[in-house]
Amino acid sequence: MSTLLVENINKSFGNFQAVKDLSFSIEEGTMFGLLGPNGAGKTTTIRMIMDIIIPDSGTISVLGNNKPREVNDFIGYLPEERGLYRKMKVGELLLFMAELKTMKRKEAKKEINDWLERLDLMEWKNKKVEELSKGMQQKLQFIGTILHKPKLLILDEPFMGLDPINTDIVRNIMLEFKNNGTTIIFSTHLMENAEKLCEQILLIDHGEIILSGKLKDLKKDFGKMNVIIEFEGEDSFLKESKQIKSYDNFGNYVEIKLVENADSQELLRDAMKSAEIRKFELVQPSLHEIFVETVQKSNPAN
Ligand code: ATP
Question: 40 in ligand 1 pocket by Cβ < 6 Å?
Answer without folding.
Answer: yes
